[in-house]
């Protein structure tokens, strides 16, 4: 069955966010802040950490409906720049997000990418943001990616197809693909059509595990290493999107 309509988040727990954030912090603690992160263009480890931390605080502000200052901003202004302070600044940002999310009901209304929605939107969004950037950091440091449940990767795919790509189209950041692409999870059998809701016969089909599909949609993997049937050029054109911010 193809998931053409947006589905509810599987209710990924706050503990999942905490686990991913702690893994990111742990990797930061022993990293050279100036090491490059190839999967993030010209970013360094420092820039990746500052980005993720600032996004956590921004999301917390969306939940509360106010603009928040990063708790680690004062240390940054004071010039603290060693790897330990980088990890501690990220930890402060991560804790602020978790504290905010735990302080409100999951169904509390707040602004989301699609208008007014539940606070759980941001919990889901930040789980996947942290997941992808943990992969970026692991790759940059040459370390193994921590084990993450397949359901988390599966929901990461669903979020791109159902939320992020439609938003990219709505904001004019991407053009509506001329063809459609069918994604099939070899982990669960779940299927997604890109763009979401397309009734056109898919020009290509890609079969892969959930983590591979998620990384593919986020531009971290090339489709050439996966099982692609049909028009490979059409598949590449759809994936070029960009599907994500």
TrEMBL record:
A cellular component annotation (GO) from this entry: plasma membrane
GO molecular function, one term: metal ion binding
Residue ranges occupied by any Mycothiol-dependent maleylpyruvate isomerase metal-binding domain in the UniProt entry: 17-137
Pfam families (UniProt xref): MDMPI_N
Taxonomic superkingdom: Bacteria
InterPro entries xref list: DinB/YfiT-like (IPR034660), Maleyloyr_isom (IPR017517), MDMPI_metal-binding (IPR024344)
Name of the protein in question: Uncharacterized protein (TIGR03083 family)
Source organism of the structure: Nesterenkonia jeotgali
């Amino acid at each position: 069955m193809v998931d053409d309509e947006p589905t509810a988040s599987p209710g990924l727990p706050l503990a999942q966010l905490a686990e991913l954030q702690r893994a990111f912090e742990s990797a930061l603690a022993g990293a050279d802040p100036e090491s490059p992160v190839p999967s993030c263009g010209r970013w360094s480890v420092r820039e990746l950490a500052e980005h993720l931390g600032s996004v956590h605080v921004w999301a917390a502000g969306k939940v509360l409906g106010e603009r928040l200052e990063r708790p680690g901003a004062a240390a940054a202004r004071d010039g603290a720049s060693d790897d330990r302070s980088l990890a501690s600044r990220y930890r402060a940002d991560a804790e602020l997000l978790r504290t905010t999310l735990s302080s409100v009901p999951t169904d509390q209304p707040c602004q989301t990418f699609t208008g007014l929605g539940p606070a759980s939107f941001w919990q889901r969004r930040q789980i996947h943001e942290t997941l992808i950037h943990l992969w970026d950091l692991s790759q940059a440091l040459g370390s193994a990616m921590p084990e993450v449940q397949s359901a988390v990767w599966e929901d990461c795919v669903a979020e791109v197809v159902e939320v992020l790509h439609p938003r990219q189209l709505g904001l004019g950041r991407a053009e509506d693909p001329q063809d459609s692409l069918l994604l099939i999870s070899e982990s669960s059998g779940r299927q997604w059509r890109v763009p979401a809701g397309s009734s056109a016969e898919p020009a290509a089909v890609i079969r892969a595990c959930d983590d591979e599909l998620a990384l593919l949609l986020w531009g971290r993997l090339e489709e050439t290493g996966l099982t692609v049937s049909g028009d490979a050029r059409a598949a590449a054109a759809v994936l070029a999107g960009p599907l994500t911010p």
